[in-house]
Amino acid sequence: MSLPMKCLVDTNVAKTANLATQPDPDSDVSDACVLACIEAVEHVIKKRGLIIDAGDEIFDEYRRQLSMKGQPGVGDRFMKWVHDNRWSLRHSQRVRITKNGHSYEEFPKHDGLNDFDRSDRKFVAVANAHANKAPILQATDSKWWGWKDALSQVGITVQFLCPKYVQAKSAEKIGT
Questions:
Q1: H/E segment holding residue 39
Q2: Is the distance from CB of 4 to CB of 135 less than 8 angstroms?
Q3: Is residue 85 part of a domain?
Q4: How far is CA 60 from CA 66, 146, 159, in A?
Q5: Mean pLDDT across the chain, nearest whole number?
Q6: Is the Cβ–Cβ distance between 101 and 114 less than 8 Å?
Q7: In the predicted model, is pLDDT for residue 124 greater than 90?
């Protein structure tokens, strides 16, 4: 799978990468999915290709769910890298978004996105506000599978690192 030079990284990508060193007995995520997330995180670090919001909403979410110590997992190492490097990213990689109630001015208007998860709207708002409509890396959140077509219609690309997993989980949830 070819990874983009610049992208947003959903928190579940880093959390899934952490499964390599912090296995969850309740997780049904495949080793291939974990490896894809590790490779994606390492790619973003190596290329300095992270896109985040200027107000640190994405950073704050990372900080709540990952270890600032940078260990023991690859996702935690990503967290430390973001902490240490976010202010040295290019200006174009720190995108301003404007909060509007439970959403953002930059969140696209589309009937298919009306029920989009509030906590993930920041990722879409940043992608939409970015000059090149930066893609979003997504690992295991199957809700995004149901929104992929609407997102595509408004010019937002979601790159699923574990497409078989999210497609199957999405089908389970809707009963198909």
A1: helix 31-47
A2: yes
A3: yes
A4: 10, 26, 22
A5: 95
A6: no
A7: yes
Which amino acid, residue 133? Answer: K
User: Amino acid letter at 15?
Assistant: K
Residue at 27 is within a domain: yes
Q: How far is CA 22 from CA 19, 40, 77, 81, 118, in A?
A: 5, 18, 13, 19, 28
3 state DSSP class of 107? coil
* Domain limits for position 153: 8-174
Which residues is 100 bridged to in the sheet? Answer: 103
Q: Is residue 24 part of a domain?
A: yes
Report pLDDT for 176: 53
- Taking residue 13's Cβ as centre, other Cβ atoms within 10 Å add up to 27
Determine the pLDDT at residue 118.
96
Number of domains in the chain: 1
With respect to residue 59, please indicate whether it lies within any of the assigned structural domains.
yes
**Is the Cβ–Cβ distance between 151 and 159 less than 8 Å?**
no
Distance, CA of 38 to CA of 78 (rounded, Å): 10
Higher pLDDT, 22 or 52: 52
